[in-house]
Specification:
Order of helices and strands: HHHEEHHHH
Number of domains: 2
Strand content: 5-15%
Protein name: PadR family transcriptional regulator
Shape: elongated
Number of helices: 7
Pfam families: PadR (PF03551), Vir_act_alpha_C (PF10400)
Largest sheet: 2 strands, antiparallel
InterPro entries: Tscrpt_reg_PadR_C (IPR018309), Tscrpt_reg_PadR_N (IPR005149), WH-like_DNA-bd_sf (IPR036388), WH_DNA-bd_sf (IPR036390)
Helix content: 55-70%
Distance between the termini: 44 Å
Length: 187
């Protein structure tokens, strides 16, 4: 289970502020749009939804019109939920914490062969190239939605941040490979 930062409440409220949703659609949306900077598990989302309902910040309804033969619980934000979200948005954000296992492995690199690190860095470069492509795809999608009078400016900004982060990490890995390779020839 992912670390619970206490922010699940606000992530879910923010998602519900966009439109009524099921726990499943919230999870999928987070995976697609926010995966470059935020994760939530089903084990965080469903208890959070229940808690929001208990606190009067959301309401739930059984939606038997989903067409799949089984009712799904659809959640909607309340006025109290909108106020809670608005109050949280006004608070100063916490200091971000960066966690990249690859950085730990490179930091301890003297304990393995350079080829091992170079392989890890090659994989890291490929992953980041794919992530940049994914984020650019989201930006294109948001542009298309704008043409349909759906304003996605703020979602587009988070995807743009992903482009910058993943591009920078890829560039770092290319430089790290160069330094490790040059160090290997100095032996």
């Amino acid at each position: 289970m992912k670390e619970n930062t206490g922010k699940s409440k606000y992530v879910v409220l923010g998602m519900l502020a966009r439109m009524p949703q099921t726990g499943y659609t919230i999870k999928k949306w987070i995976e697609q749009e926010y995966s470059h900077f935020w994760q939530e598990s089903f084990g965080q989302i469903y208890p959070t939804l229940k808690k929001l309902v208990a606190e009067g910040l959301a309401v739930s309804s059984d939606d038997t019109e989903t067409g799949n033969g089984r009712g799904q619980i659809v959640y909607s934000i309340t006025d109290a939920g909108r106020k809670e979200l608005s109050d949280w948005l006004r608070e100063e954000p916490e200091i971000e914490k960066l966690r990249y296992e690859i950085l730990l492995k490179v930091s301890f690199g003297e304990n393995t062969e350079p080829e091992v690190l170079l392989g890890h860095l090659d994989n890291f470069i490929r992953r980041n190239e794919k992530l940049v492509k994914d984020m650019n795809g989201y930006i294109e999608l948001f542009d298309q939605l704008k043409e349909q009078d759906t304003d996605c400016t703020y979602s587009q900004l988070t995807a743009l941040c992903g482009v910058y982060i993943y591009s920078a990490m890829k560039d770092w890995a290319v430089e790290a490979k160069k330094i490790i390779s040059e160090k290997g020839t100095d032996l």
